[in-house]
Design goal:
By secondary structure, the chain is α/β, with parallel strands linked by helices. The chain is 32% helix and 30% strand. The longest helix has 20 residues.
């Protein structure tokens, strides 16, 4: 399924666990420091450089090269999303983000926030940073460079970005929870077979 950003709640509620999607439009990058600063701005009543309502947020610190006044993406692989776990439920609720791209999944409180507010988690293949960069057509803006380039907030124009898998949908289904449950249910058999 091909989606155009920004996304509506209807868009994300229509997605189901396991769907494959690609994205066209604008996405934003943000890692640990960006989340901390954005939530600090929210507490202080200050506006962010970008309106994130309906946005797609990519847990990514892209490698950028500056040529004159123009930025170019060299690599843009996802970072481990669990690093943002403690902040993500509040981030989703406050800013109205509709999709998060990352790797490795997120905790139950974030899954619950996604179900409550209408947001999905789109899994991107780790280790495919150069491939991911091919779907990025333009770097529109780079904000908060004082945090360091990997932590800066970038506005990226993408085309056919993906493929991405809906690994957590807006109805509470989570690939990561299913894997945990499967492992837990099979662990006694594995231990028995191994004699431990």
């Amino acid at each position: 399924m091909r989606l155009k950003t920004p996304l509506s709640e209807k868009d994300v509620r229509s997605l189901k666990f396991g769907d494959e999607v690609t994205l066209d439009g604008i996405i934003y990058t943000g890692r640990d420091e960006m989340h901390l600063r954005a939530l600090e701005y929210a507490r202080e009543g200050r506006e962010l450089p970008f309106d994130l309502h309906g946005a797609v947020l990519c847990h990514c610190g892209p490698m950028l090269r500056n040529e004159g006044s123009k930025w170019h993406v060299i690599a843009a692989g996802p970072t481990t999303s669990s690093r943002m776990d403690s902040m993500e439920p509040q981030f989703i609720e406050h800013f109205g983000v509709r999709a998060i791209i990352g790797k490795g999944g997120m905790s139950q409180p974030t899954v619950d926030a996604m179900a409550k507010h209408g947001c999905v988690y789109l899994a991107h293949t780790g280790g495919a940073a150069v491939l991911a960069a091919e779907g990025i057509k333009d770097v529109k803006r780079v904000e908060w460079q004082d945090l360091g380039m990997p932590e800066a907030m970038c506005e990226l124009e993408v085309e056919s970005f993906g493929p991405l898998i809906v690994a957590i949908d807006a109805h509470g289904e989570s690939l990561y929870k299913r894997v945990d449950e499967t492992v837990a249910s099979n662990l006694p058999n594995v231990r028995k077979q191994l004699g431990i």
